Amino acid sequence: QIIATSDVLSLLLCCGNIPAPEPLLTVSPSWLSPGASVTLRCEVKPPSANSRFYWYKAVPDLSQRNYRYDLLPDSIGGTVEDFCIIHGQINTAGYACRAGRGNPEIYTHYSLPKFIWSADSQPAASLTVSPDREKLFTADEVQLNCKGSSTEWRVKKFTEINTKSDVSDCSTWGEMNGSSCTFSSRWYRKAVYWCESGSGQFSNAVNITVHTPTSVLTVSPSWLSSGASVTLSCEVEHPSAGWRFYWYKAVPHPPNSFYRYDLLPDSINETVEDSYIIHGQRHTTGYACRAGKGNPEIYTYYSLPKFIWSAGSYPASSLTVRPDREQHFTSESVTLNCGENSAQWRVRGITETGYMIHTENCSTWGSMTGSSCTFNLWFHKSVYWCESGSGEFSNAVNITGHYGDLLLVSPVHPVTEGATFTLSCRLRGENTLSNVIFYHNDKMVQNDSRGELKISAVSQSDEGFYKCEDSGKVSPQSWMAVQAGVSHERSSFPVLLVVGLVCGVVTVILMVLCCCRKSKDSGCLRLVQSERGSNTNHTVSHTKTHEYISALHDAAEAQHVTYSLLVFKNSENKMRHHEPEEGPVYSEVKAGAARKSNTAAAETAVYSEVKSTSGC
């Protein structure tokens, strides 16, 4: 006699050799909509052809911290079908199922309860949420309040992670106080919450997503100008009181496409203000922010980096463009070169398309070879810059791709004050044009046959937007920036000082030479010092190699004194008159108060070499 598999299963269940299977209940849909029916389906493994299915309502039982299963009226005798359709359900409810077979009938376990949720509240039981929004944050404290005709309540939560579902009570993830459940979460969580009363009622259900808030950084201005400060502003998603803000420099980290965020020194202890002012920024730089609140502190995500661009290049990293102009026809090849100051480079570009901003590497829209990025332009306006392996940013450039037939040939880099530059107009397929009209800030500045606009001795007034027109066709406009020239004001004072000192030394030496010419027999030096209306003269004679040191020692009387150190080389015979040997004359001049010693006066000496022309 052959025994069926189902009979063996019944025999084993009867004798207790294996546990009874647990059916799986599914409900569809999970959320009620007006007028829609609900389908319950019960699955038993392994399936049996002779099974009957029983359908239950799951009624909250707070005393047992569980559910009581009440058989549905239409299911008293069980159903052959493994599904059940419920009509007219308008409130949140829980259901369960089980299966049986044989005579006497052997039953499976009850399924875990499944719920059909309604967003509509009812007088017997209702749920309110504070803050009253579906999207909440890890830093928020959430309060769920149950109201209705019962004095006993519990709050339930349903979560589903990787197809695994779980129903849990407030006591396991929050704090229940009377009819209110309070909780906060440090991690992302999406769940359905509802109240269950001691009288067996379900409240309305709510979807709540707890996630880490984001920060959005804005910078103003985006392009640096001389002497201007930069303001960073950090906005937290759904702002609330108590946030503290942290400010970071975004440091390039090739070959990865990400940035390392280094906390700014002044931001170590955070700021209460949601803005931060940076002074003295001169080069292209990236910044980011985030915020934190609470104790222990819960942080937002880092903001996306935002950039402050500088058009001026500097030795550490300099970006050049070939062809060297801002506007290019679409499908033209453009090469950006980062220089040779780093072994690792990446070229980045930001394209504004409506409200979307894309920050991408050259490898996604061009070809990177060494420190050069070559790509074909499409119709858009973008900002490009280089980032080195050592964390440097280059200057930034604006490049526009133009699908029309006429473009303006203008410099991609700023023009220096005092320099000369030339603008021209280019027609697709042609290099030069004549009878071109040029505009500066929408005002016509030239209309003749020269075909180009040449500006000499550029000044700040020449900065602005330029465009050209030819035969009714108008090019896009481009901004021409003017940068200050190299200032010489700082070096003028030292130059004048040195010139003044040299002139003074030469004057003293000429006076000495005149003195020596008058005293042919003896080299002499007469130093005149004015001391409150009286003159003091000092005369010294010389030997074979003579050193003359003249000084006024009357410190009590003199307010200022001039020291002179002279060295003369004469012939051995003082009585013989002939041309002197060539030798230097050193003059040391020091101005200072008389109370200073000669040694102190000699600490900063200025020497001038003079060729003697008389036999002194």
Automatic annotation (TrEMBL):
What range(s) does the Ig-like domain occupy?
Answer: 21-113, 213-305, 415-487
Q: Which InterPro entries match?
A: Ig-like_dom, Ig-like_dom_sf, Ig-like_fold, Ig_Fc_receptor, Ig_sub, Ig_sub2
Cross-referenced Pfam families: Ig_3
Q: Which domain of life is it from?
A: Eukaryota
Do you know which SMART domains this protein is assigned to? IG, IGc2
Q: Which residues cross the membrane?
A: 493-516
What's in the keyword line of the UniProt record?
Disulfide bond, Membrane, Signal, Transmembrane, Transmembrane helix
- PANTHER family from the UniProt entry: FC RECEPTOR-LIKE PROTEIN 4, IMMUNOGLOBULIN FC RECEPTOR
Q: What protein am I looking at?
A: Ig-like domain-containing protein
**Species lineage, top-down?**
Eukaryota, Metazoa, Chordata, Craniata, Vertebrata
